[in-house]
Write a structure and sequence with these properties.
3-stranded antiparallel sheet, binds D-mannonic acid, about 20% strand, TIM Barrel, binds magnesium ion, alpha/beta, 12 helices, 20 strands, about 400 residues, 2 domains, Enolase-like, domain 1
Length: about 400
């Protein structure tokens, strides 16, 4: 089998997505997600100008060799644009392999290790009562694990809280909006949110929380300690993780489990965190971390240190990435949990998919390959629109981590 064509579909059905389609001489094609939120066209140009011409004529079954060719062969390694581009190619090739062998992707990754993939979704509210209602609503829908975020009193537009009744979607069309942040107010408030949730909801539901890289290590240590009585499933991204050893300070003070890595793009970003037992869940996702080939190696490395997977699954990861994560999650032994933030009905209309949700668990479906199709005619009606993630400033105007 040979690759005969590779092209991009850039569309914006409620938000921007970059999708790669690779065609072969046997009529089988594969899809890969290449979406990098707020920097979409950088990946599109990297693929179009530098990667896609090199694919023509290659054997799509050679996922390892093509991965190495794009990683080592470029000389310039790593980084979100490069690794998202490699991921798009890699996932499309695995999709082709599954279709050619007439089997769902999970069978090529080790087969089923479980019946379903435990997922968590996002609950949020402007205040604690609204956040409580929101968690209850998702529990009523069957979710066994829910991430909870609430507006911090005295901080306008807190992370994770939707504007004016719309579903939460961090990227906004136009230029970047600005939000405010106060670590002091947040640290004083966050434990009261989880105290209320535990008192009202009992101890069975898994509660998660995203700090979104906003604290210093010692502040994160204080937060983790103060949340211990409410036994969170995890505290996510307590501080920026470029400095991997900073997690040692957090670990010294708290047993609240830690998840990090949604902005990582290779195992090299995470290996010290795992080797030194500084995290419990690795969030580096398939689309930003070099595809299935690299995610499988990262998961296997993590398994040595009893670190489990907990992949990023916000709406900026297209249904193609969601499907890929569900196939891998069904297969790897050290799966932990998968994030599931609902796509809009319009996005789901463009990317029709076989994955399903039932009683807290998702399943990738049994269609050959990934089990996702793209309706290109519908996609063409929603052209790309420039959009950005917000930036954040402290109350005195200093730019800080969003
Ligand atoms: C978040 C995301 O889902 C998460 O855990 O951190 O909302 C994140 O802000 C966006 O995906 C950024 O693109
Ligand atoms: Mg996050």
């Amino acid at each position: 089998m040979k690759i005969t064509a590779a092209r991009l579909i850039v569309c914006s059905p409620d938000r921007n997505f970059v999708t790669l389609r690779i065609d072969t001489d046997e009529g089988i094609y594969g899809l890969g997600d290449a979406t990098l939120n707020g920097r979409e066209l950088a990946v599109a140009a990297y693929l179009e100008e530098h990667v896609l011409p090199c694919l023509i004529g290659r054997d799509p079954f050679q996922t390892e060799d093509i991965w190495q060719y794009l990683y080592r062969g470029a000389y310039w390694r790593r980084g979100p644009v490069t690794m998202t581009s490699i991921a798009a190619v890699d996932v499309a090739l695995w999709d082709i392999k599954g279709k050619a062998l007439n089997t769902p992707l999970y069978n090529l990754l080790g087969g089923r290790s479980r019946e379903g993939v435990l997922v968590y979704t996002h609950a949020n509210g402007r205040d604690i009562p609204e956040a409580l209602d929101s968690v209850r609503k998702y529990m009523d829908e069957g979710y066994l694990a829910v991430r909870a975020q609430a507006g911090v009193p005295g901080v306008a537009s807190s992370y994770g809280v939707p504007k004016a009744g719309k579903p939460y979607e961090p990227a906004e069309r136009g230029l970047p909006s600005e939000s405010l942040w106060s670590t002091e107010k947040y640290l004083n408030f966050a434990p009261s949110l989880f105290e209320k949730l535990r008192v009202e909801l009992g101890s069975d539901v898994h509660l998660l929380h995203d700090v979104h890289h906003r604290l210093t290590p010692i502040e994160a240590a204080r937060l983790g300690k103060s949340l211990e009585p409410f036994h969170l499933f995890w505290m996510e991204d307590p501080c920026p993780a470029e400095l991997q050893e900073s997690f040692e300070l957090i670990r010294r003070h708290t047993t609240t489990p830690i998840a990090t890595g949604e902005v990582f793009n290779s195992l090299w970003d995470a290996h010290d965190l795992m080797r030194h037992h500084l995290i419990d869940y690795i969030r580096m996702t398939i689309v930003h971390g070099g595809g299935i080939t690299h995610a499988k190696k990262t998961a296997d490395f993590a398994a040595l240190y009893q670190v489990r997977t907990g992949y990023h699954g916000a709406t900026d990861l297209s249904p193609i990435t969601m499907a890929a994560a569900l196939h891998l999650g069904l297969a790897v032994h050290n799966f932990g949990i998968q994030e599931h933030m609902h796509h809009s009905p319009l996005t789901d209309g463009v990317f029709t998919h076989q994955y399903t949700f039932d009683a807290g668990y998702m399943h990738p479906g049994n269609a050959p390959g990934l089990g996702v199709e793209i309706d290109e005619a519908l996609a063409a009606k929603y052209p790309y629109q420039r959009a950005y993630l917000p930036v954040a400033r402290k109350l005195d105007g200093t730019l800080t981590d969003w």
